[in-house]
Amino acid sequence: MLAAVLETQRDVLAMTCAGLSEAQMATPAVPPSTLTLGGLVGHMAEVERAWFRRVLAGEDVPMRWSRFPGDDFGFDGPADTAYDAWYEESARSREIVAAAPGLEATGTHPRRGPVSLRWILCHMIEEYARHNGHAEVLRAAIDGVPVTVDR
């Protein structure tokens, strides 16, 4: 159930960005904020990579854009590669979740210590839900097209 809810949140982000050009993905649409949809998608790629690959699976992979954990976590990453990175990281996250022995599987976060897959999934749902709200506002400011999500 948790994995399915997370997948729905990923779908909402994909639908929110659907049909936009690279230039639109790189547009800071709500001044004075510099946040872009591309930056937001890049952030979600970093978050997927951090929680599923680095924390849960213990993979020794560098972050894609962040210089140190928590600095900007991809918000300022290149918009032209953000969507592909997010797609790749989401796919790898799905593989890691599918291979986990159960929701009590744990990984170690450098500050929080041991965290379960259950906790990570709940955290990721919350992370997507928050940022999907931001994405919908950005999308509306870019082209006025409402995001339609079949819920």
Question: Would you mind describing this structure in some detail?
Answer:
By secondary structure, the protein is mainly alpha-helical. It has a single domain (2-143), classed as Four Helix Bundle (Hemerythrin (Met), subunit A) (Up-down Bundle), CATH 1.20.120.450. Helix content is 58%, strand content 5%. It has 5 helices and 2 strands, in the order ααααββα. Strands 1-2 form a two-stranded antiparallel ribbon. β1 and β2 form a beta hairpin. α1 runs parallel beside α5 and α3 (37-56) packs antiparallel against α5 (117-143). The chain is globular. The model has no long low-confidence stretch (mean pLDDT 91). InterPro entries: DinB/YfiT-like, MST-like. This is DinB family protein.
Q: Main β-sheet: number of strands, strand sense, barrel status?
A: 2 strands, antiparallel
Instruction: Return the domain count.
Output: 1
Provide the helix percentage: 55-70%
CATH superfamily: dinb family like domain
Return the CATH class: Mainly Alpha
From the alpha carbons, calculate the radius of gyration and give it in angstroms.
15 Å
Estimate what percentage of residues fall within beta strands. Answer: 5-15%
Tertiary shape: globular
What's the β-strand tally?
A: 2
Detail the poorly predicted runs: none
- Average residue pLDDT: 91
Q: Structural class, please?
A: mainly alpha
How is the largest sheet built, in terms of strand order? 1-2
- Under CATH, the topology can be stated as Four Helix Bundle (Hemerythrin (Met), subunit A)
